[in-house]
Amino acid sequence: MTRTRTTSNKIEASTRKRLPQRIGKTQVALLVRFLNLEPRFISSSPLAEWRSGDSSMYGMFYENGPYLLNPDGKTLRENPVSWNKFVNILYIESPVGVGYSYSDDPNENATLSDDNSMEENYAALSDFVNNIFPEFQQRDLYVIDHRWSTKGELPVKFKGMATANGLIDYSHNINSMMHILYFHGLMPFSAYSNLLDTCCPVRSNEFECKFSEHIDWPTFPTPKYQNDSCFDTLVSLVLKYYLGSPNNGYQIYQDCYQQPVKPGVQNNTYPLSSNDPFLGYWCFMDDSLRTYMRQNIEDKYTKQRFTMRPYFDKAIEAKVKSLIYNGDTDLHCNHLGAEWFADEVATGNNLPVKQSRTEWYYQLDREYQKRMAGYQIKYGDYLDVITIKGAGHVSGADRPAQLFQLIYNFVNGNDYSTPVIVDPVDPTSTPKAATHSLFFFALFVIFFYHGYYA
């Protein structure tokens, strides 16, 4: 049966027993959902949808999934702070070409854009809830993503959304990044001062300098004005101290080798045929990303949304709670820009400051005192902005226990400093799940292949 978007916005359903199943001839995505083995979670716990800017498999195996990949790249160990302890997680690979998602039509050029990705993600989630796992209908839904969108109707209770180190506003991100480069010692004062003098010669506050006003975002990286010395200076500094720096922009306090190094753990994690120029080193450098993902999706992708402001406005209007959290050592999607964005959203929606900037704490287990985990600001009842102390872009890998407590309390409506005690793993013992193979792990994973006609 031929299906079009005009006749249905849902994808034909895969079944749980016939896998894989060929559905259509366009944009086919692989969806993965973990089954929690405890029946009380299956029957009552919320559904959390996890989408990443790259492959969601990284989040599944290195951040919040029920099992983590061991250094040998072949076996798994149990994750003591898995989010599956309190939510059911649906991991989505998006857009087409990222991770395991693909188009099964060799003659088709998949549409890669913000709008198309929103439609695909909605269709995939709708099919999952309506056809594949109707058990989740009327269940609470939380979306954790770098972007957020909603359209149509889903038989779920949309309770909250969270952005994890997300690029939620291009202008705030570049405006704040230049200050962070300088104040973290990554750019010299002479360069910083020259940038301010060139872009904002008459100023009383350097933080009011809007570098973004010199950029034409739809045609980036091109200037908004011809022969713009501010744009030229900005680009040269970004290339030298950001993109061309040996510093790891995803975690500025960690080294990131740009020269070949001895093959290590990640050489076993990723396919040996990847021709990784960094020989398996885990740094999220552009060349490595493009190699690992097999296709250069970024260069084919059409960016259409340069701020998530309208979607946060809709969430607040619908009384859906929103959480913005950032690792405070991430340069790419930095915490300062996120805080500026949240303040703008709050001001535009007349949200009062319910909790001024203050610390939040976590407690590892009952033997330890509470430790500071970062800072928090609360705007009204529906918008919180959080920093994760010491975490970079991948907060869940850098500070897994803190993130476990943060998300648990977000879902359950608790104060973020409320301890969530889990049984720690004895560091002197061999992980009991270390002998679990990837094949064994696959028994707990259900894969769904979806597609629809353009």
Structural overview:
The structure is a single chain. 29% of the residues lie in helices and 18% in strands. The protein is an alpha/beta fold and 454 residues long. The strands form 3 sheets. Strands 11-12-13-10-7-6-2-5-1-15 form a 10-stranded mixed β-sheet, with helices on both faces. The radius of gyration is 22 Å and the shape is globular. Mean pLDDT is 77; it is low at 1-41, 146-152, 261-267, 269-286, 288-293 and 431-454.
Tell me the layout of helices and strands:
Blueprint: E1 29-34, H1 39-44, E2 47-51, H2 57-62, E3 67-69, E4 75-78, E5 88-92, H3 114-132, E6 140-145, E7 157-164, H4 170-183, H5 189-199, E8 215-216, E9 222-223, H6 229-243, H7 265-269, H8 286-292, H9 297-300, H10 309-317, E10 321-327, H11 335-348, E11 353-362, E12 371-379, E13 383-388, H12 395-398, H13 400-412, E14 436-437, H14 438-442, E15 445-450
Parallel strand pairs: 2-5, 2-6, 6-7, 7-10, 10-13
Antiparallel strand pairs: 1-5, 1-15, 3-4, 4-14, 8-9, 11-12, 12-13
